[in-house]
Design goal:
CATH topology of one domain: Na+/H+ antiporter like fold
Shape: globular
Strand order of the largest sheet: 1-2
Protein name: Na(+)/H(+) antiporter NhaA
Distance between the termini: 52 Å
Largest sheet: 2 strands, antiparallel
GO molecular function: sodium:proton antiporter activity
GO cellular component, one term: plasma membrane
Catalytic activity: Na(+)(in) + 2 H(+)(out) = Na(+)(out) + 2 H(+)(in)
Keywords: Antiport, Cell membrane, Ion transport, Membrane, Sodium, Sodium transport, Transmembrane, Transmembrane helix, Transport
Radius of gyration: 22 Å
CATH class of one domain: Mainly Alpha
Length: 395
């Protein structure tokens, strides 16, 4: 059991779980495509409650709320106790997240302007925290702790930005009564907090009702997860560290259940010669590729450079320019949320497959280029620390 806890607690484990799930989805879709499609398009639920959806929508609208709940908790933690709690360091990460969300979206729009594909402008905005942190731990185990903190902060902030885009950019007509009910549920949570209610069991039914109301409001239901997470108290309640406890409980559920199941449900892309040929000649594929690779690199890297050069903020200790280059590369891993937005942005099956092919290719190239940049930086740092000049004059 201690060994299992150690494995599941490692930074590599969530990325490995996501990778295994992705490979499983691709193999399933390509070796038994009909069963894959039939399974995830099977509808079930409770029609009288308006909860009759196919399997993929249950995963995307319900299970993924756990993922976005954890993203919200991580943002709250970073704002109150983590790297975003220090204004000058926070400014660099927040600016990088904004640049890393806006520049890819602009490149995507410029690449697809005048076509139906332009509606997918939200696809390249986010960075996948599980893959990104896992790749960083794998390819740069000696990277400074501040680099991981920056990566997690950037991924968390631009994931929250992506959630706002999902909630409002891809909303399908707002039902104000249901939205009001969701807001009322959040108000009840605040009242319970101020009354000193600490047990998570008391909040769970309210959280389910907030999710249910948000689902029927026309705004994507996953916004409920972020909203409820941001209402979590950062200071102790009745002697309990509620934020820390929830992160400890919910993070494994998100990393090892919600995200892998999401990957199995959404990453089943046909990889036949014909499908790859069509993807290679589709504008949306290249737009996604350019936005995630060039857009993230320029948005994150240039924003950090300008912010530090203007002395508006500063980098964490031991983080070098080479680390910033690697950070700009690794930010192109937009896997989970990019797949999520693709299914919201498009209804054309061929366009969905082509966009997902671009996401796959961009993720692979982003990981490879980040590995090269960070390995080169690590070698330079090692050479500097072991050189005679660095060790000082001999006596």
């Amino acid at each position: 059991m201690p060994t299992m806890r150690r494995v599941l607690g490692s930074e590599l484990a969530p990325g490995v779980a996501l990778l295994v799930a992705t490979v499983a989805a691709v193999v399933w879709a390509n070796c038994a495509g009909d069963s894959y499609t039939r399974f995830w398009e099977t509808e079930f639920g409770w029609p009288r409650l308006g909860l009759h959806m196919d399997g993929r929508h249950w995963v995307n609208d319900a299970l993924m709320t756990v993922f976005f709940f954890v993203i919200g908790l991580e943002l709250k933690h970073e704002l109150t106790q983590g790297s975003l709690a220090h204004p000058r360091r926070a400014l660099v990460s927040v600016a990088a997240a904004l640049g890393g969300a806006m520049v890819p979206a602009l490149i995507f729009v410029a690449s697809t302007w005048g076509t139906d594909a332009v509606t997918g402008w939200g696809v390249p905005m986010a960075t996948d925290p599980a893959f990104a942190v896992g790749v960083l731990a794998l390819v740069a185990p000696r990277a400074p702790a501040g680099l991981r903190a920056m990566l997690l902060a950037i991924a968390t902030v631009d994931d929250v930005l992506a959630v706002l885009v999902i909630a409002f950019g891809y909303a399908h007509g707002i039902a104000w009564v249901w939205l009001g009910a969701a807001v009322a549920g959040c108000v009840v949570v605040v009242i319970m907090r101020r009354a000193g209610v600490a047990g998570a069991g008391w909040y769970l039914p309210i959280g389910v009702l907030v999710w249910f109301a948000t689902l029927h409001s026309g705004i994507h239901a996953t916004i409920a997860g972020v909203a409820l997470a941001l209402l979590t108290p950062a200071s102790p309640v009745a002697g309990r560290q509620v934020l820390t406890d929830l992160l400890r409980i919910a993070s494994p559920v998100s990393a090892f259940i919600a995200v892998p199941v999401f990957a199995v449900a959404n990453a089943g892309v046909p990889l036949s010669v014909s499908a790859l040929h069509h993807a290679a000649h589709a504008r949306v594929t290249w737009a996604v590729l350019a936005a995630l690779l060039a857009g993230k690199f320029l948005g994150v890297g240039c924003t950090i450079t300008v912010t530090v050069a203007c002395r508006i903020g500063h980098l964490p200790d031991q983080v070098r320019p080479g680390h910033v280059i690697g950070l700009g590369c690794i930010a192109g891993l937009g896997f989970t949320v990019a797949l999520f937005v693709t299914d919201l942005a498009y209804t054309n099956a061929a366009m969905i497959e082509q966009a997902k092919a671009g996401i796959f290719a961009a993720s692979l190239l982003a990981a490879t280029s980040a590995a090269a940049a960070l390995a080169a930086t690590d070698r330079r740092c090692q050479a500097m620390t072991t050189s005679p000049a660095a060790s000082g004059p001999r006596k």
